[in-house]
Fold each of these.
Amino acid sequence: MGEQIREMVLADYDAVVALWKSTPGVDIRPVTDGKEGIERLLARNPGLSVVAVNDRELVGCALASHDGRRGFLQHVVVAPASRGQGLARAMIDRCIERLREHHLGWVHLDVVVDNEAAMAFWEKAGWHRVDTLTRLSRAL
Ligand SMILES: CC(C)(COP(=O)(O)OP(=O)(O)OC[C@H]1O[C@@H](n2cnc3c(N)ncnc32)[C@H](O)[C@@H]1OP(=O)(O)O)[C@@H](O)C(=O)NCCC(=O)NCCS
């Protein structure tokens, strides 16, 4: 595998957004996924988010963060041509390793309900659905 996993830095932003935009099902939020929003995320969570790069381009990313109690993974994406090589697993393993250093109880992520391929991926990787909770949200 010629790809390398490394910490995401703000200079990766344009390539990361291009990857999100080219991936069906990735919901790009105007505030939190804008450049300033990602800058805040990276500043508040140093060393947690990662990208996968080869010698030509950025081919994967995973945003990781925590609030002091729970960890979160978001926008885990690998470019189609680079899938099936263990890149997502390698990015997630690294995120989890770093999240563990923060003494958190759990790490959570959201999967859009009809994204069956993503559910199959997460369940194969040992994640489980939480049937006892319903997520409630409101805009700020
Ligand atoms: C889901 C995604 C990130 C997987 O990336 P990837 O780099 O191909 O995954 P990996 O190669 O690391 O796969 C790790 C394992 O999961 C398995 N796997 C990968 N995709 C799978 C799928 N859709 N269904 C079932 N298993 C899957 C692999 O076979 C591999 O198993 P193994 O370790 O036994 O060989 C990628 O398909 C993607 O970007 N999808 C679109 C974006 C998306 O839906 N992201 C999730 C948002 S919640």
Amino acid sequence: MSKSIYFDMDGTLADLYAVENWLPKLRASDPSPYAEAVPMLNLRILARYLNRLQEMGYRIGVVSWLSKGSDTNYDELVRIRKLRWLAEHLGSVDWDEIHLVKYGRPKHYVVKDKAGILFDDNAEVRESWRGEAYNEKEILSILKELLV
Ligand SMILES: [Mg+2]
């Protein structure tokens, strides 16, 4: 089985926590911070690396939680914003898997390759992950190593 690489979104690819008043807005079921979040890293370089890794046989995926304490209606609004964010900012990446799941759901439950590599800003998520896990600052350097 080929190796998989998964990305969290909030705090890893998208700078949700830098959006002004992101927390009160999320608590008020306002999905706009998910749309407004700016990229955490140079996504043009990331997209190029991901395209090359996919050509080498890696599978590429997203595994991201929806908002904490949300209802089904807000989950759907957030899901739409997150998919739109990926299309807008990483449109050239042909994701093999995208999982946008309930807040707190263990990420290895939902992905196809539980031994894959995960990039996630949340230390607890990294600790409970079954494969290799790295924080958001390590994305480009680790991917670069995989390319050689
Ligand atoms: Mg996160």
